[in-house]
Design brief:
alpha/beta, five-stranded parallel sheet, 16 helices, globular
């Protein structure tokens, strides 16, 4: 199958992962050239993206389309006001043009429901980000309860926010909600064949929940068709849409390690995680089944405390009881590996990085590269969609093992250990790690720290790991990791 893919943005999780996974499944995948894409705060140029789609749609069997890339120019751009509602809707008309020209083209689209708060593009943005989050929660709480104390709290927070900031925030929310409503109409009329709506970083209360209610009402007549889904996530959207193209749908057995179910609400999410598992699998065409019927197995390492903690803020103490518990859980993983079915490990003990102590325990019990898939970054549903796509599309072999190795190097070693070291080193040089002045110098530190961490890690059993490391954008939130000889 020839797949035309318009990613959400230029970061590896959106730009590279889906291509790697589609290639593993034998599909050819064409994406815009890197210089045609967005870069950090700079959105892509719409005329260039439009030309890319018009020039290449004739040769494609399927189109995976990020609505936010087409309408706004990137995920970050979807959170600001530079594109009006009218312009965004006009840009979407291109999809109708493609549908009319190529009626047999399979169009799978994914759009984002705006996160609770604003972007943090500099360290000084964090305080405003937190206050906007409080404002969103307080507004929803006040709307639900109508209690005087809730109204007073909303008023208190509102007075702390500049009017201009609140106006821009609501302008973006209303525009994006209008675009998402039109996407549902596109599905209903057949312009889209399938639509995935993803709730970006959120909490159980907020403006986004009221927007979801409105979207669900609008999609009521198509919600039972299997063509539309709405759940938590964002950066896994391209991977999950890629998984939905699989020609031989996967039968998957899911087991939670150490607890009976995944009924926790993950950090940055607004519903029990098992709901996201079911919805993501359904959209990807994955059938949840019993051990005996399953082709592959997904083991979930859940949080050991609730609420789920960010990996860099979690309690670093590790008691004898913790070690014994992890030993028992590692034995469960080994037991599943020995029973012969491919096993993936979804590590969501923490947000924004893997559980290093558990993975080191597992490495003492087995070869971690005997796992058929691993994922741990960034939110629980980001990790979920990525690993489901790998299990759906990945085939046992060198390419799949390289992808698993990259996830271990990135999601686990970088995110859980090296990122904090890099932050400390760069802060000592006067850098703002959310907006670097000297990216090249930061990458030199990154490579030194990663090589040192990999060499000292017990994970890989003295294997000589060859990989390259870079920062896709001038910030340290994510890294680009490439194992073997593939280009960055």
């Amino acid at each position: 199958m020839n797949v035309l893919y318009l990613p959400l943005d230029s970061r590896p999780c959106n730009y590279r992962f889906p291509v790697q996974l589609l290639n593993m499944a034998g599909h050819d995948c064409l994406v815009p050239a890197p210089d045609q894409m967005d870069y950090f705060r700079k959105p892509s140029h719409h005329a260039t993206i439009r030309e890319f789609l018009l020039e290449n749609a004739a040769h494609a069997d399927a189109l995976i389309l990020s609505v936010d890339q087409l309408a706004y120019g990137s995920l970050l751009a979807s959170r600001d006001t530079h594109v009006s509602t009218e312009e965004a809707l006009d840009r979407l008309q291109l999809v109708r043009t493609l549908r009319q020209a190529y009626p047999s083209l399979l169009i799978v689209a994914y759009g984002v429901i705006l996160r609770s708060s604003i972007s943090t593009l500099r360290t000084q943005d964090i305080a405003w980000h937190n206050l906007i989050t409080e404002y969103s929660q307080a507004a929803h709480r006040a709307a639900l309860s109508a209690l005087p104390q809730d109204q007073a709290e909303l008023q208190r927070i509102t007075t702390l926010l500049p009017q201009e900031m609140r106006d821009a925030y609501h302008q973006v929310r209303e525009r994006n909600q209008t675009v998402n409503r039109h996407c549902i109409d596109f599905l209903r009329e057949g312009t889209f064949d399938r639509l995935l709506l993803l709730q970006e970083d959120s909490q159980p209360l907020g403006f986004h929940r009221m927007e979801q209610d409105a979207l669900r009402a609008r999609m009521a007549d198509v919600s039972g068709t299997g063509k539309i889904a709405l759940h938590n996530g964002t950066d896994e959207g391209g991977c999950l849409c890629a998984a939905s193209l699989a020609q031989h749908p996967l039968k998957l057995y899911v087991e939670t390690l150490g607890r009976p179910s995944c009924n926790f609400i993950a950090k940055y999410e607004d519903r029990p995680f098992d709901e996201n598992i079911r919805s993501s699998c359904a959209f990807a065409g994955i059938e949840l089944t019993t051990w005996d019927e399953a082709d592959k197995v997904l083991l979930v390492l859940p949080p050991d405390t609730e609420p789920q903690q960010d990996v860099l803020a979690a309690d670093t103490s590790y008691s004898v009881a913790d070690a014994m518990r992890d030993g028992r859980l590692a034995d469960r993983v080994v037991d599943k590996l020995r029973r012969g079915k491919p096993v993936g490990l979804l590590d969501v003990r923490y947000a924004n990085g893997g559980a290093m102590r558990f993975m080191e325990t597992l490495a003492s019990h087995c070869d971690v590269l005997s796992l058929s898939a691993y994922s741990a970054w960034n939110t629980a549903s980001n990790a979920l969609g990525t690993i489901l796509a790998q299990l759906q599309l990945g085939q046992d072999g060198q390419a799949n093992q390289a992808f698993t190795l990259e996830r271990l190097l990135d999601d686990l070693i970088y995110q859980s250990r090296v990122r904090s070291q890099l932050r400390t080193a760069l802060a000592a040089l006067g850098e703002d790690v959310l907006s670097l002045k000297d990216k090249q110098r930061a990458e030199q530190h990154l490579n030194t720290l990663m090589e040192r961490a990999v060499q000292s890690s017990p994970l890989f059993r003295e294997r000589q790991i060859q990989a390259r490391y870079a920062l896709p954008w001038p910030r340290i939130f994510e890294a680009s990791v490439t194992a073997g000889g593939r280009p960055l």
